[in-house]
Design goal:
The complex is a heterodimer. By secondary structure, chain A is of the alpha+beta class. Chain A is about 20% helix and about 30% strand. The two termini of chain A are about 15 Å apart.
Chain lengths: ~350, ~70
C-alpha cells in the first residue's frame, strides 16, 4: 500500500489528511483512452481512463521494480510498465509478466487502486491508509447536486501549502481588503465581529453584524470530503438570481503545492439561468479569475514560516479552529497504526 | 490542456472565443440589467432602445431572447 499508517503527524499535517475523499483534478484532464500522472498527498498516482470513460486510479509504481507506470503503455483495460512490460489491471492486479509467463506475481493484487467518483466535472478519490482501505461515506455538496443550481468549475494550481488555501477561505475578512478593488467585494464595513457556530458537519464562521454585503460567512463542511460553502453578492449587472456561491475544495498535492477547486454557483432557472451562464462565459469568468489571482499572489508570497510567527486577533478564530481540527486529525491518523 | 504545473487558465467555461456579436450582446445586457431592471420585459425594452438586435437584425421579443439565451447559455 502507498499511504502508510506510520507517517508522522507532521508529515500528514504537511501533505494532507488521509482516510477521506479529496478532489484530484478536473475530469477533462484525463480523456477517454488516456493516462495522467498526478501527485496527491505527496505520493505519485496514475489516473487511467478506458475508452468507454471508466476511470481508475492506481499507485504510480510498478510492483516489480518500482518504475512509474505512468511512463508505460495504455493497453485499453490495463497498463504495461515500460521497464519490463509487467501488465497491471485497473484494480491493481498483475495480469501478465511477459518476461516470465507463469511468474508468481501474476494474478496478485499488488498495486493500490483507489476508489474514485466523478462529481460536477471533478475527479474525487478516497485516500485510505493501510488500516482504512474501505472508502468513507461521502455526502456531496448540495449545490453540486441540486438541479435548481447552476455551477461552473474553476480549477487552478497554486504553489502554497494546502492548509494556506483552506485557511484563506476560513478568513472572510480578507475580502474587504485584498479584494476591495474587485467587481463583487468593494462594499461593506472594513471592521467586523465574528462568531463560530457549530454544525453537525463542521462549523460556520460568520460576521455578527453584516450579511449579504461582502464575503460575510463561510461554512466548513466535513462530509467524507472537506469543502467550504460561501456566498458573495453580485452587482445588478449580473442580472436576476441573487448572490453567487462558491463550493471550494483543496487538493493537497505535496508540502508546497495545492490544486484548488472553486465551483461558482447560482440558484437560477430558465432564461435567468441561461443569461447568467452566457454572461459568465463571456465577461464574468475573467473578473472572478482576477479575484482568484489576488488570492494566489498573496498566498504564494507568504513566507514558509508564516504560520510560525503570527499575532492573531479575533478575526482569526475561524483559522485557529481549523488548524486545531486538522492538527488533531493528523495526530490521530499518525497513531492509528501504533 | 497541459501537463505542466501550474495550470492557470482564465477561461475554463468557454467552448469558443466569443464573437463580436456575443461580446456586444453581453456588454449591453449588463448595462440593461444595471439601468433597466431584471424582468424579461425590461431586458427586451432595454436592448431594443439601445438598438442591439438579434443576430439576424430583427428586434428582440421575449420569445426570441429566451431562445437565444438558451442557445448561448446552455
Amino acid at each position: 500500500m502507498t499511504l502508510s499508517t506510520s507517517a508522522t503527524a507532521d508529515h500528514i499535517y504537511a501533505t494532507g489528511l488521509r482516510n477521506q475523499w479529496h478532489a484530484v483534478v478536473p475530469s477533462h484532464f484525463v480523456a477517454p483512452g488516456a493516462m495522467r500522472k498526478v501527485t496527491v498527498l505527496g505520493e505519485q498516482w496514475l489516473l487511467f481512463r478506458r475508452s468507454d470513460g471508466t476511470l481508475s486510479m492506481l499507485a504510480d509504481r510498478c510492483p516489480h521494480r518500482g518504475a512509474p507506470l505512468s511512463l508505460g503503455k495504455h493497453l485499453g483495460d490495463r497498463v504495461a510498465c515500460w521497464y519490463h512490460g509487467v501488465e497491471v489491471e485497473t484494480d491493481g492486479t498483475v495480469s501478465s509478466v511477459p518476461g516470465l509467463p507463469g511468474c508468481s506475481l501474476e494474478g496478485k493484487k499488488l498495486v493500490t487502486s483507489l476508489p474514485v467518483r466523478e462529481v460536477a466535472g471533478a475527479i474525487l478519490a478516497y485516500f485510505g491508509d493501510e488500516e482504512h482501505p474501505e472508502p468513507a461515506a461521502l455526502t456531496l455538496p448540495e449545490p453540486l447536486t441540486d438541479p435548481e443550481v447552476s455551477a461552473f468549475l474553476c480549477y487552478a494550481e497554486w504553489n502554497v501549502p494546502w492548509r494556506y488555501a483552506v485557511e484563506n477561505l476560513l478568513d472572510p475578512m480578507h475580502g474587504a481588503f485584498l479584494h476591495h478593488e474587485s467587481h463583487t467585494m468593494s462594499d461593506g464595513d472594513t471592521t467586523a465581529k465574528f462568531r463560530i457556530r457549530e454544525t453537525a458537519r463542521g462549523y460556520f464562521f460568520e460576521k455578527t453584524d453584516q450579511r449579504g454585503v461582502n464575503f460575510d460567512w463561510v461554512e466548513l463542511c466535513r462530509t467524507g470530503v472537506d469543502w467550504v460553502d460561501l456566498s458573495i453578492p453580485y452587482p445588478p449587472s449580473a442580472g436576476p438570481g441573487g448572490p453567487f456561491g462558491i463550493v471550494g475544495m483543496a487538493c493537497p498535492v505535496d508540502e508546497q503545492r495545492t490544486g484548488v477547486f472553486f465551483w461558482r454557483y447560482r440558484r437560477v432557472e430558465d432564461w435567468q439561468r441561461a443569461s447568467w451562464r452566457f454572461l459568465y462565459r463571456t465577461l464574468i469568468e475573467k473578473r472572478h479569475w482576477d479575484v482568484l489571482e489576488q488570492d494566489r499572489v498573496m498566498l504564494e508570497s507568504m513566507p514558509v514560516d508564516a504560520d510560525q510567527q503570527e499575532n492573531l486577533y479575533q478575526h482569526d478564530l475561524g483559522v485557529v479552529r481549523l488548524r486545531r481540527l486538522y492538527r488533531a486529525a493528523a495526530e490521530a491518523q499518525s497513531s492509528a497504526g501504533a | 490542456m497541459t501537463d505542466t504545473w501550474p495550470y492557470l487558465d482564465v477561461h475554463q467555461s468557454r467552448t469558443h472565443e466569443p464573437t463580436p456579436y456575443e461580446h456586444k450582446l453581453a456588454a449591453t445586457l449588463e448595462e440593461v440589467f444595471t439601468e433597466e431592471g431584471h424582468e424579461l420585459a425590461d431586458v427586451v425594452r432595454g436592448l431594443t432602445s439601445r438598438q442591439v438586435h438579434a443576430a439576424d437584425g430583427t428586434p428582440w421579443t421575449e420569445e426570441s431572447f429566451r431562445a437565444e439565451m438558451n442557445r448561448l447559455g446552455a
